[in-house]
Amino acid sequence: EAQVTQNPRYLITVTGKKLTVTCSQNMNHEYMSWYRQDPGLGLRQIYYSMNVEVTDKGDVPEGYKVSRKEKRNFPLILESPSPNQTSLYFCASSRGDSYEQYFGPGTRLTVT
Amino acid sequence: EDKVVQSPLSLVVHEGDTVTLNCSYEVTNFRSLLWYKQEKKAPTFLFMLTSSGIEKKSGRLSSILDKKELFSILNITATQTGDSAIYLCAASDRGSTLGRLYFGRGTQLTVWP
Q1: pLDDT at B41
Q2: 3-state secondary structure A23-71
Q3: Among A72, A65, A104, CA closest to A88
Q4: 20 to 30 A from A56, CA-CA: which of A78, B17, B48, B97?
């Protein structure tokens, strides 16, 4: 089944404790992207990747890191999480010649 | 500053009504406008528009882009309770693929039976 998977789905952590949210797609998509969604703010793009080893900043990259070493994986790293990074995070992917993004199920992160 | 503004932010209608959702944008190097529907989970893709004046249609939903006035509308005719969702629009800076995406805050549509 074609899908984008994220892990974990729910995470409660403490300020400053490094964490990684994994994202994997099985559709051989070139484009992958991370978003955060906060009430009343819509989706905001954190980072995106056009292909392996190619990443670019989105709207709100501060406090986040990404890497794209393999085509299928695009992990989101929070080196030192803070409470203002409490949010719902979505990973998405699409073919390089398409606008149709497939979203993962979301990761709800709480930083206390 | 690049931005996308959606209006209204919230809309409540009765089944059978027709609604128009608005999306205006100011994005450097604008190339395309996308619409998504988000129910209780992840967004799903509705439309992509790159050319002015050409309507895209899918069932009761349709959308059009005006690149001169920098806006797009999403129309939903004969609304149903299943249309209740957040509708998001996004502007892309790429012409043939996705790149940097600028999202609006969304319109929360509620359709009462």
Answers
A1: 86
A2: EEECCCCCEEEEEEEECCCEEEEEEEEEECCEEEECCCCCCCEECCCCC
A3: A104
A4: B48
Neighbours of A47 (CB within 10 A): 22
Say whether B88 and A94 touch across the interface (CB within 8 A). no
CA distances from B56 to A43, B15, B96 (A): 23, 23, 17
Best interface-test mutation with B: which of A101, A102, A107 has the largest number of B CBs within 10 A? Answer: A101
Dihedral sign, Cα of residue A11, residue A86, residue A54, residue A93: positive
The predicted model gives B35-57 an average pLDDT of 90
What confidence tier does B1 reach under pLDDT thresholds 50, 70, 90?
Answer: confident
Which residues on A lie below 8 Å from B101 (Cβ)?
Answer: 33, 43, 45, 48, 58
CB neighbours of residue B42 within 10 Å: 21
- pLDDT, tens digit (0-9, with 9 covering 90-100), for A36-71: 999 888 899 999 999 999 999 999 999 999 999 999
Q: Cite the DSSP H helix spans in chain B.
A: none
For strand A76-78 and strand A19-25, is the pairing parallel, antiparallel, or unpaired?
Answer: antiparallel
